[in-house]
Amino acid sequence: MKTEQVGDALFETWTVDEVETALNNHEIVLIDVRTPQEYMFEHVEGALLMPMAFFKADALPGQTDKRIVFHCGSGVRSEKVSRAAIEAGMARVAHMEGGFGAWKGAKKPYIGTNMSTGAPHRVA
After folding, report:
1. pTM tops 0.85
2. Please, what's the largest Cα pairwise distance for the chain?
3. More exposed terminus of the chain, fewer Cβ within 10 Å: N or C?
4. Which residues form the signal peptide (predicted)?
């Protein structure tokens, strides 16, 4: 995990392995900031959707029970959202390095779309 001090806040960049471990251990809430269309086509199972276009830092839950980690397709949008959350007063913010592309590249499981039926299915 990489960390950066931004004023009084701590900005963290997590690897896909760190995110997978924390997600499997129920230690984080993974928030996908991609578009609804991107999310519907394929997403990390268990990730919540809060598109960057509708992002409101004050709508986020506190982080007393679980940490919040943002992700997008490549890491660019999730970094922007993370920095916006810091500007809104969050003291500790994290995002996943490389986004969903890195997740798939590391052969992590996700929910995809069966192109012959249009139904969601697990991709291992």
Report:
1. yes
2. 50
3. C
4. none
